[in-house]
Amino acid sequence: MLKLYNTLTRKKEEFQPIRQTADKKVGFYCCGPTVYWYAHLGNFRTYIFADILRRILEYNGYKVNYIMNYTDVGHLTSNQDSGDDKMEKSAKREGKTAWEIADFYIKAFKKNAEALNILKPTQTPRATDHIDDQIELIKILEEKGFTYKTKDAIYFDTSKLKNYGKLAMLDAQGLKAGARVEMAEGKKNPTDFALWKFSPKDKKRQMEWNSPWTPPGVRGKVKGFPGWHIECSAMSRKYLGEQFDIHGGAIDLIPIHHTNEIAQSEAAYGKIPARFWMHGEFLLIDEGKMGKSEGNIFTLETLIDKGFNPLAYRYLVLTAHYRSKLNFTWQSLEAAQSALNNLYQAFSKYPEDGKISREYKKEFEETISDDLDMPKAMALVWKLIKDEKVSDRDKKQTLLDFDKVLGLGLDKIKKIEIPDEIKRLVKQREKLRQEKKWKEADEVRKKIDELGYQIEDTKEGPEIKKGG
Ligand code: AMP
Ligand code: ZN
Q1: Which among 209, 208, 200, 192 has a CA at the least distance from the CA of 148?
Q2: For residue 465, what pLDDT is reported?
Q3: Averaged over 295-322, what is the pLDDT?
């Protein structure tokens, strides 16, 4: 039984797909990166978490339709409805167009994700390729009376929705305008958010589109762009339907972005878009959130330049539960790198043709199915390696099976090729032993030793290993 922690209910719940079909399909949407700069290690903690979740679903026999979007328009520097568009700001800084910025950082993201062994999502839609879908959704909200217009945007009126903020358990009453929350001109409630923003009169935007809307008192066409939240509602519906199984991201998305996604979908279709809402905790550095605006980030490139294997970072992420904070230090990364090296070394010496240990597989399944307890799963890996009751060839097969979830690249570890000459000597020694010619058999063993190979006699016959 797969149990997942659902932010919506603040409980671990048994996972069952919404549509219980024979082909065991599951729909999973994870909010993707804003592609205005390199994704940092903190961002990748979230995408590793999503990848592990997807792999666990697949390990449980589900076919996962995994959608991760690229936010390439509309995410403003404040995370609310003010400030510059991150894409346009980055374009100005780098002397490129906003479109070139998006293409460049999407490519960089894909390269890093691949190095981290993050499996490709089923589809990766871009917000700018779905402007029509977003406009259609805003039109539905308008028809149902959930919107109003100010001089700079079409807003969603959160007071029209019963129960706004249930995901975050927000206290909308407590969020009084003016107290701590800055209110844009014409905004009715502090929690209202922009669905469509009109392009500013004094600045030419690079990314802007025609829409059915104009600011009050303005005639003719005024271009504009979507707010940040509408893209995820429009694209998740398009690719996964009005209700799907799991929606994910990091915890900072709970109070605003996901709360507003829920508001939009509930208002338009009468449903909370996803059954499970899952959120990963932050990667910290010096005990504070790693973030671009905090100015304390490291990218995967920095780590590679320092000689680390990107998968050492993946290993490090696996040592913490996704709902616990993880403080990044170079020391802990070094420890993860040496643990990974030890794992590779142990694994590379194991011979082929073993069986998956049933006992260990059962324990592994129980562990990962308990809301992704990866630290415990990693402890199990080491328990297996040290277990003298399991043969080396079975260890190999079992670890390969675990690695479908862990993604630590064990399938790419070269198996040791045993030269024909060594194989011949091993056979010769076996024959001599059967004939009880112990002395001669020992001499052949010495020869094998001298050639750099070792024989270990096991229940299932001799195992050949390379080196000491
Ligand atoms: P962004 O590119 O800013 O849209 O962020 C992409 C994803 O990374 C979002 O789910 C963020 O919540 C998440 N994220 C940002 N900073 C961190 C961090 N320090 N640790 C974990 N996830 C993060
Ligand atoms: Zn989103």
Answers
A1: 192
A2: 75
A3: 97
* Res. 28 pLDDT band, cuts 50 70 90: very high
- Contact between 227 and 195 under an 8 Å Cβ cutoff? The reply is yes
Nearest ligand to the C-alpha atom of residue 230? 2
Which residues have a beta carbon within 5 Å of ligand 2, which is an ion?
31, 232
The ligand 1 atom nearest the CA atom of 281: 21
Contact 247, 236 (CB under 8 A): yes
How remote is the CA of residue 149 from the centroid of ligand 1, in Å?
Answer: 31
Of 75-89, 119-133, 336-350, which gets the smallest average pLDDT? 75-89
Q: Ligand 1 test: best mutation among 7, 43, 124, 247, most atoms within 8 Å of CB? A: 43
Q: Over 50: is that where the pLDDT of 176 sits?
A: no
Best residue among 45, 46, 299, 313 to mutate for probing ligand 1's pocket (most ligand atoms within 8 Å of CB) is 46
Give the position, in ligand 1's atom list, of the atom nearest the Cα of 290.
19
Give me the residue spans of the domains in the chain.
17-197+227-280, 284-412, 420-466
- Ligand 1 centroid to Cα of residue 442, in Å, is 61
Q: Which bin fits 24, alpha (ψ -120 to 50), beta or left (φ > 0)?
A: left
Query: Residue 297: which of 286, 311, 309, 281 has the closest Cα?
Result: 286
CATH topology for the 284-412 domain: Four Helix Bundle (Hemerythrin (Met), subunit A) (1.20.120)
Cα 24 to averaged position of ligand 2 atoms, centre (Å): 25
pLDDT-derived band at 177, boundaries 50, 70, 90: very low
What does the pLDDT look like over 431-444, one tens digit per residue?
999 999 999 999 99
Q: Are strands 3-6 and 11-14 parallel, antiparallel or unpaired?
A: antiparallel
Q: How remote is the CA of residue 413 from the centroid of ligand 1, in Å?
A: 31
Class of domain 17-197+227-280: alpha beta
Q: Name residues whose C-beta falls within 8 Å of residue 338's C-beta, 6 or more positions apart in sequence.
A: none
Q: Does residue 247 have a pLDDT over 80? A: yes
Q: Do domains 17-197+227-280 and 284-412 have the same CATH topology?
A: no
